[in-house]
Target: GDSL esterase/lipase
Amino acid sequence: MTMEKANLFVPLFVLFFFGSRFCKVASAGDKNALAASFVFGDSLVDAGNNNYLQTLSRANSPPNGIDFKPSRGNPTGRFTNGRTIADIVGEKLGQPSYAVPYLAPNASGEAILNGVNYASGGGGVLNATGSVFVNRLGMDIQVDYFSITRKQFDKLLGEDMAREYIQKRSMFSIVIGSNDFLNNYLVPFVAAQARLTQTPDIFVEDMINHLRNQLKRLYELDARKFVAGNVAPIGCIPYQKSINQLKDKQCVDLANKLALQYNARLKDLLMVELKDSLKDTHFVYANVYDLFMDLIVNFKDYGFRTASEACCGTEGRLAGILPCGPTSSLCTDRSKHVFWDPYHPTEAANLLIADKLLYGDSKSVTPFNLLHLRDL
Model:
């Protein structure tokens, strides 16, 4: 979910520093730790892939990353002030280091044994999604890249050990779908003609059909432990509130209805269809929509000052129009904002969501939490 624009030169040395300095391979005896995390998705979990693309969707300039300790506060390409949900989940599950961005020059050799991040700001389930940003990695391309990684694992570990490592000691995170609505179906003028012939039912079914094939491809490449997040309440992000001139507690109804419609189909795909058809596979459905809606509605209960105003922004009543960049205004206390910029949550919000996914009950994650998934 992103509208980031290209900004300053990428401090690539930062990526090399924390990508190599903290990389170590999980030993076979450390059975309680997650060995590798493979992350697919959009800007909610992009760890820097878009730094290497000629794209309008980038977060490679300050103050992005201001609270990301491994880079000492320098931007890494993450669309938030600190860690993404994928970063936090990996840490808590014992992953030795962050999954390296696939497009980073150091994404080779032993560096990939702790996992690889394929996520890309602007990417979607559908290939047409995010074309407004010029370049981005859609889900099809991300799976293509994993197929290359899979061959590298065979060379590094040998075929038998690589298969066991990926099937039993690795986790596949899928965080995608928001852009298919925000930067495809709901884009003013660009998608208006398509909506005349493609109803929400048809569009959502097209997304599900594509995702089904993408997940089956990953299964054929030995992916066995999946967590897939549903689409958050995208009608409540500062950008949507600003362009629709809504009050603080209001949300865009159509955007949220589309998200809920997709989420219902996604749950059925994972929990019924693929669960029964893909042997020895575990799917976890992460109820991100309800978790974020709870934060937005009850933000004061969680210690936040606002769930409608972005911490970093430039234009609009809620700092909700232009992306976060060097000329943006910055809030005084980032821990008091649910949203970092007009589109993405702060690290403080990510920490709360990640905690629910890791240790929560069936209201947050179905059929079990990520700690249980890791230990299967």
Q: What stands out?
A: The chain is about 40% helix and 10% strand.
